[in-house]
Amino acid sequence: MAFIVNDVDISAAEPKELLFDKHVEYIANHGNDQNDFEYCMTEFLRMSGIYWGVTALDLMQQLEKLDRKSIVEFIKKCQCPTSGGVAACEGHDPHMLYTLSAVQILCIYDCLDQIDVAGVARYVASLQQPDGSFFGDKWGEVDTRFSFCAVAILTLINKLDVINVPKAVEFVMSCCNADGGFGSKPNAESHAGLIYCCVGFLSITNQLHRLDCEKLAWWLCERQLPSGGLNGRPEKLPDVCYSWWVLASLTIMGRLHWISSDKLKVFILSCQDTDTGGFSDRTGNLPDIFHTLFGLGALSLLGHDKLLKVNPTFCMPQYVLDKLKINTQIISV
Amino acid sequence: MVKLYALCVFFKGPSEGRLLKAAYDLQSFSFFQRGAVQEFMGFASKTIVERTQAASRQSVKQDAYMCHVYVRADNLGGVLIGDHEYPQRVAHTLLTKVLDDFTAKVPADQWSTGTESSIAFTQLPAYLSKYQDPREADALTKMQNDLDETKIILKNTIEAVLERGEKLDDMVIKSENLSIQSKAFYKTAKKTNSCCSFS
Amino acid sequence: MEIADIENDVLCEKIINDINAVLTRDPDVTSFEIIPTLSYQNKSPVIHVEHNLGLESWCAKHVYDFSHKTILASKLSGSKYIYNDSLVKYLNCALLINPDVTTFWHIRRQLVEKNKLKIQKEFQFAALVLTKKPKASEAFAYRRWLYPFQSAESIDWSIEIGICDRCADKSLSNYHAWSHRQWVLERASHLLRSEILHTEKFIKKHISDYSCYHYRQFVLQTIFDICYYDKEQNEYNSLRDFINFYLVDGVSSVGEIIQTLLPNIDLNATNEDKLKCFLYCCNFAAYDIKFCDDLKNLFGFRESFENHRRASLRFIVENCMRFNSSVECYQQPPVSKLSKFDYSSNAFLMALKKSEGMLGEQHRKWCSLFLNFDYSDNSD
To answer: Does ipTM surpass 0.90 in this model?
Structure first.
């Protein structure tokens, strides 16, 4: 009996080359129409939106297309003077997710000194819990994403010593499932995005030896569908952002070659919008800035010659981390 | 999802498909969508019946839905719309059974002139409800064995069923059976935007 | 549609008042949705039919912009917005249209802390938001946050399970709904039994929703961890059939089942509750293996069926190994630590290993990796 899978068909008419200039244009113009409903609806994640755009353009060596000065000013306004955390946008509450995005942008612009770095460290430390986990903000949601954010932020600002790292590792490892994957909390279903967070976390904290790489890589490889695209969990449709989460995890684990790069490349390229530029989640859908970064990031991991090398742990250009003298652990097989 | 939404019986006349009876189960759609969904399922059923040759079967995929069509040699046709996960073999066996039952209860001379209100056949809702669970089809085993699945024509979209020069968008705009409200739903549904984000 | 700014503000204020009037008037509103409409029509865009609330799409952007602007202006002005519950009507509209805005939920949290909002109403509101967006993680988080404000006796966990069920029904593999359900189950173990039935029913309708299968694995593991079993149950038919599939000399009595799975066990030295729980759980897992085989026969080969079958198989094999190697079953050592277990002393596991090894190269690899079966010595 045939194997039934949820997947997409890629028609011959879909793009096969990287539409470089279109993407530059798409990102540079993103948000120019501030009356756009979509723009207003996504204000709550603006800081991450800027990080996605800045990183994507930097990978394409087109960073000058964005106005550095206004972005840095924006970030300064978003830092909360009391807690030290950074909000997605002025008027919103600070959160771990947007604090990481802000720090990543400032590292790319090489101007961390523009914000209160000690405040950032204080904020992150204040969110660690006795079991080693992290809240996303003061209201108490726990998630392995926030563990990743915490150590990524503190490593970028060179203040990892303000938290209890062994406890943090213990919590992340308690979220490891029998299938080798990780979920958002202990016993939660394995999920490629959260696996990326946990693998990235272990790479930053130099604890990759704690992974059961054979099992985890098995699970990650099963994400590849006949179309070449990767999904994030069993039976889900392929999605460009999982090209990043899965591929980056496999890269950190030294097992990128376990999936078919050629087929994945075909899938990612088919998600480009030929009219507007940008990548969508899957073939035929509308593009957005989030999938645009992760499409480009995945192509960079696959060695695309028009893109700068990306660091699989931080999802930032490798040269930025080199400049900061940050080494992330990678398993070599 | 393992789910059946609509079951219709048509007579395929020389110029158009004539709806004789229909039943719907649209509880899983949001309240304000149900009217438009029902109109669209009726529209799709009619469109496909009219483009299916007599004495043949088709299964047409459209997004997450699957329209199973069987038009018999005597031009009596049945359409079953379900989720794509509903087993195709069971769907087609059910169509055979429904049309047999219809033939037994409604004389053939009423088919070419009948309407939903004139035709006395009240079994469709019961069929639709009973076969929500395809395990019920165990009772149809013999019929299932008689069904030659290789003869079912598979189509990937409704567009693939249309004749040369026909465009689904134009047909929707022109259709008199679709309300303004349903056309608005159609237009919005076409704009698929991704909803996934890391946050 | 062009409306001058002032007119726009007046209109938005009116729509917001209309929405809130419905929320106040009808405490039993069961759903909210945005109704696609092509253009402005000269009637109220707020539609209320049979406890369902709809807002026509043409005005959603304006209403959201206006609510958003009002809330943030009030917050940024520092005018003790927190004490001003007239802000609630804007928060209601903004969150119904855009449930992902964490900051807006936080304002509600502060109002709750100041006793400006009724807890029951807040539960209802979050549930209403979930009818519009079943994947709204912030609405689930808000419900979790609200729980400690309730007195223990007023909590009815089955309501929470019902919400998870509806949200999961509407959106495939809804991670937030299933994680929330797990959170509920961790606090309401009396629901374990009914969750076994609920998840089976759900799977029959949503055959490819792997999140539900995973949740069912969690239910099984929880039952095992708390040493639960059904005191009425004296037969383990699924487990018996499962064993008899692999063994030529079949088993029938419970004693034979125990003897087959745990040949080295000293019954006198074994905790009876633990043994009964072991049998109950293995029977559950064996039932699921059969369930997956039946699903495969009806619907064809799917990843969910394969993965869940393997998880169930692993449960049985791992726990047999643990029990047999007299490892304290509550300590849950990873299988890798059991790799030295000599299953050649266990005829049943040997037969299972051989039989599973014949189900294709991929499955055999899975067995070596996840069950520590060694096929190198006697490949057949």
So the answer is: yes
